[in-house]
Amino acid sequence: QAVIEGCQRPIMANTVVGTLSRAEERYFSALFDKIGAGGSEVSAGDCVDFLRKSRLSDNVLHEVWDLSDTRSCGTLDREGFYRALRLVAMAQNGVNIGQKPFPEKKLVEPQKLARFGGILDDLLKECEAIHATPAPAPAPAPAPTPVPVPAPAPISAPTPAPAPIAATPAAAAPPAAGPFAPAASAASAGSTDIDSTITGENLAKYDEVFYRLDPDAEGKISGKKAKQVFLNSRLPTGILSRVWEFSDMDKDGKMCPNEFALAMHLVHQCMENRNLPDKLPAALLACVAAPRATRKDIIKGPPVAPKPGAVADAGLRWAVSPAEKATFDEIFRKADKDNNGLVTGGDVSSVFLSSKLAKADLAHVWNLCDIHKTGSLNAEQFALAMYLISRKVKGIELPQTLSEDLVPPSMRTARGDATRPAEPPIDTTVVLGTSMDAASLRAEIKELQAKKQQRDAEIAQLKTEKRDLAQQLDGVRKQIEADRHALSALTQEINKLQADQRHEDEHAKAADTAALAAEEARLRAALVASKAQLASLQEKVTLARSGASRTQSMSISRLAASTKGRPEHSSANNISTMGLDQS
After folding, report:
1. What share of the chain is helix, strand, coil (3-state, %, to 5)?
2. Mind listing the pLDDT tens digit for each residue in 190-212?
């Protein structure tokens, strides 16, 4: 952000939004809402990932960003985002947007909408149907897009388009910084121009590396070989592309010692965050072209007399047998995909790792075999590496240094007698200066620190969430415990109520039983009394009946006695009266 804010770029009028078609407005709005996640701005990081889906080169996307981020704040608002989408569509339709200054009148509606690798593809088709017009499609514009970054090596096949180094290119302002800007152009405001002088010590180192790369009969090395050294700088391919354009003066795709020394110096300067100029200083060209001592003497070194009894390298048999060499050569040919006679660590990593050896052992094997520290192995070095790996697999310890019978035959001349002091291995980190390691380490440390900060933030957030969850869990546990106590109390209350109810039921049942028994006894007593009373009454009735019968008999007898000698009607009346009395 500080880098972006520190750069100064011309502010161009925002005239895009007012000229959007209905289809563009609908499509651009949906893309802004998707990429911006509903916010009012889209960050540079999100824009980088999104705009690269257009499959335009980083150079073109850098121009898009430069023309769109008119506020120079490192983010795109809705208007700037729409402007970027219009420019991407123009570039995809063949319009050269790299013209400086960019004319606003060219910011017209393109024939087709911008495409971003299938994002909102259904909506894109609908909008293109609206966007389509019956007019015939115009022929593609003849102007090419801005120079794309070669993938991945501008070194191996440079294009003849750039002018020779001696030509005077048009003056231009330094490229603006942005998310797609090369590392050198994104340097801080305090960076300076390149150093126009090369020390003799550095020239000697560059020459030593050059001859370690085994120049051809013309005294040149191929772009592929030079690429392996340049890529060790970890500079962006855009920077390396410009370095190649400056250094390959005759545009033959190869490098002579002078061109290689110039390229190494420029790479060194870029690693120190210095800006590449539009034109190389004359003093720098003169410094590179100055005559120097015979270069091959640097590799051979001064002749040293062998010690008594030493065996000449030429007559010493190589430890790798011809049969093993043939087997390893077959593997080497398969790994050497670009057929340049060299393989890198990436080319043979799968082969090495298939041995199941520890990575430390494999790294030691590589360091032993990469004798000149060029970052690549030729066929003999690869065969030696495979030989050492096979011995380690069998349980034979790796040597700490190469004995004379292990040194590949083609390298023994350059190596000289093993008894003389060994020449220091050429490490590109030394050749390019300590700034290569320092800069790459700083970049890695910065990246790791950014990742660490992100991880720390994630960890802090997770810890906060964990603490909240722990508190929630503790609350739930307390609630469960309270509910358990409440349930226990409720259970006890229910048990007590049930016991009381049973006691009451039993008491009521006993009372009812006693009442029923008393009532039964009362009723039985009443029954007995009733029966006694009935018997007494019956007895009285019987006695009454007996008395009545006797009385009747006596009355009849008296009546009969009294009626004797009386008239008949008087007897009848007496009988009636007696009957009434009897009744």
Report:
1. 60, 5, 40
2. 345 788 888 888 888 888 888 88
